[in-house]
Amino acid sequence: MSDAEVRGLVDHLFRHQAGRMVATLTRILGAHHLELAEEVVQDALLLALQRWPFHGVPANPSAWLIQAAKHRALDVLRRRALQDRRAPELAARLLADATAGDAAEPTVAAEIVDDQLRMMFMCCHPALAHDARVGLMLNVVAGFGAREVARAFLLDDATAAQRLVRAKRRLRELDVVFEMPAPDDVHDRLAAVLDTLYLLFNEGYSAHAGESPVRRELCAEAIRLARLLAEHPLVDRPEVHALLALMCLQAARLTARTDDAGELLLLPEQDRSQWDRALIARGFAHLDRSAAGDVVTSYHLQAAIASCHAAAPSFERTDWARILVLYDRLLALQPSPVVALNRAIALGMVHGPEAALGTARPLDGEPSLRRYALLPATLAELHRRAGDGELAREYFQRALTMECTDAERRFLRRRLEQVVGVGEAHVGERTTS
Questions:
Q1: What CA–CA distance (Å, rounded) separates 75 from 43?
Q2: What angle do helix axes 157-174 and 130-140 make, rounded to 10 degrees?
Q3: pTM beyond 0.70
Q4: What are phi and psi of 258, to 5 degrees?
Q5: C-alpha distance from residue 225 to each of 106, 209, 232, 404, 418 (Å)
Q6: Which one of 69, 296, 344, 345 is CB 3.0 to 4.6 Å from 44, fit for a cystine?
Q7: How far is Cα 143 from Cα 348, in angstroms, rounded to an integer?
Q8: In degrees to the nearest 10, what's the CA dihedral of 140, 144, 148, 149?
Q9: Coil, strand, or helix at residue 396?
């Protein structure tokens, strides 16, 4: 393998395995040593980058990484033995676990035994605020950096980083036990777990930065974790099935979201024959299971909206009136600027772009959306449809100053060229770091 291929493999394994590795080490070492677990996982990945180009990639790269991380943690604990009275005990645990070899993939039986799910429920400690719980889970379990957490919450990088530091310090102070909480506590913490999986899936479905607008591995991981929840009687609840329905229905469209050249395709342009019918069927099955009980969550409403798209034989025959009604209910339940923007798009499909602009323009002053490229892009598209090329140009240019994926940037440039001329399309554009 070339150096570039090794780097690509290690990056792939980081996205797929880092969260599991940190969770496994935290199970052995305890929450007090969460930062040690993160540190040695990073060390194992760096070691792979150094060794694999010269010695070859091992037959089981994931097992190699976890064993390397365990041995690195063992070395650290041995050095700490004189200062930390618990270090010898933890080292013995690590040694026993390492010599036992890599265990088989965790399964769900009488209790949730997946280390990542245990980690997620541990991160939902009542001493942490809801946003701190979700941000910590995205960082520790999903491997999001502070910048990715900031994007998920529409925050600046420094604020997100400070939240993560405070949350980890609080868990360390509490010395939280790495185990599933009591059944009553599980239900109290479930909302934050579901919100984390939702944000994890969203980053995969519509990435904030990078080359591709789609990150399939994040979508797959979110669905895997949600299925573990749905399959366990302790947390087999309607809202879990509603979220899983939403994920399946959205993931069914992933292949059609880009063309063969990796260019972004919007819903009207997508080839619906490429939609995954098996995933759509699974989504409708979970939507049916979510109907148990009398509580309707935001996930129920979003899944219902996704089902309208999945059921439509074409874009033109989409039931936009039904979608608008569902967005009305969603906005009443979850009055956020992002939901309001999505409702404005649906309103425009039913009553025209001028009606949509009447509700979308006031969102332009929302502080939480000042980094959200979809807001000026949506305003630009609505003005374009309304025949106002000048305002469409201004909003497309503003969207191009914001952070987005390379494919989204190319899409915005193409739209801008349609309303001004190729020669003017790059006027005022700047790149973002």
A1: 12
A2: 90
A3: yes
A4: -135, 155
A5: 12, 24, 11, 27, 42
A6: 69
A7: 37
A8: -20
A9: helix
The residue whose two tokens read 């947390």 is: 235
In DSSP terms, 264 is beta-bridged to 258
The tokens of 162 are what? 């400070």
**The tokens 């608008």 sit on which residue?**
324
248 touches 204 (CB < 8 A)? no
Integer Rg of the chain from CA: 23
Beta bridge partners of 258: 264
Tokens of 267: 């819903």
In contact, 55 and 34? CB cutoff 8 Å: no
Closest Cα partner for 123 from 66, 38, 42, 208? 38
Q: Hunting for tokens 């910590």 — which residue is that?
A: 136
Q: How far, in Å, CA of 401 to CA of 429, rounded?
A: 6
Which residues, other chains included, contact 83 with Cβ-Cβ below 8 Å and sequence gap of 6+? none
Rounded Cα gap, residues 433 and 412, in angstroms: 18
The one-digit pLDDT tens for each residue of the chain (433 residues) are 677 777 778 777 777 778 888 888 888 887 778 888 889 998 998 898 888 888 888 888 888 888 898 888 888 887 776 555 555 665 666 666 655 544 444 333 333 446 777 888 888 888 889 889 889 988 888 888 888 888 888 788 899 999 999 998 888 888 777 777 777 778 788 999 999 999 989 988 987 767 777 888 889 989 988 998 898 888 889 999 999 999 999 999 999 999 988 899 999 999 999 999 999 999 999 999 999 988 999 999 999 999 999 999 999 999 999 999 999 999 999 999 999 999 999 999 999 999 999 999 999 989 989 889 999 999 999 999 999 999 999 999 999 999 888 999 999 999 999 887 533 444 333 333 3
Distance CA 330, CA 322 (A): 12
**Lookup: tokens for 391:** 């305002």
Backbone torsions φ then ψ of 372, nearest 5 degrees = -95, 100
